[in-house]
Amino acid sequence: MDFSGHPAFDTNVNAISDWTGQVNSMSTAQMAATEAAPPLSRTSPTPKSTPRSSSKRSLSPSDPESGQHKRQRNTQAARRYRQRKVDRVAELEEALALVTKEKDELKLKLAKAETEASVLRGLVGGGKVG
CA-to-CA distance for 74 and 68, rounded, in angstroms? Predict the structure, then answer.
């Protein structure tokens, strides 16, 4: 099947060729310092039916650095997740404190209103307070 006439294919091929031109002009030190992915066009649709295994790089036992890099990325992601969780719990505790304070204020306001209503009923009803 030939996809050469499809706009998404042409856009991605141009983006990849631009990226490879940039990589070829970089020095070895620059390549080592950057972990750039090829720029993808925002207008081109991304294929949703591609198998997940094709997007992952295979980690060979002869490449321990890639396994170590994956472990470091996972450790950082776990740290970020735990921090977000702690932040969320703190946010919820703060919201709980505000709601509890508001509830207590409303209870006090209700008690005052009930007392006032009782006194007014007593005044209207002939002096009975009750």
Answer: 10
pLDDT in tens, 102-126: 999 999 999 999 999 999 999 998 6
Tokens in use for 15?
């983006």
Q: Which two tokens stand for residue 88?
A: 């969320």
CB 40 within 8 A of CB 8: no
Residues 6+ apart with CB under 8 A from 128: 121, 122
Nearest Cα to Cα of residue 19 among 31, 29, 7: 31
Q: 0.85 exceeded by the pTM?
A: no
Residues 6+ apart with CB under 8 A from 9: 3
Our measurement of the distance from residue 47's CA atom to the centroid of its chain's CA atoms, rounded to an integer in Å, reads 23
Two structure tokens written together for 97:
């404190």
Say how far apart CA 81 and CA 73 lie, in whole Å: 12
> Please, what is the Cα angle at 113 between 110 and 119, to 5 degrees?
140
- Cα–Cα distance list, 62 to 35, 38, 128 (Å): 21, 26, 93
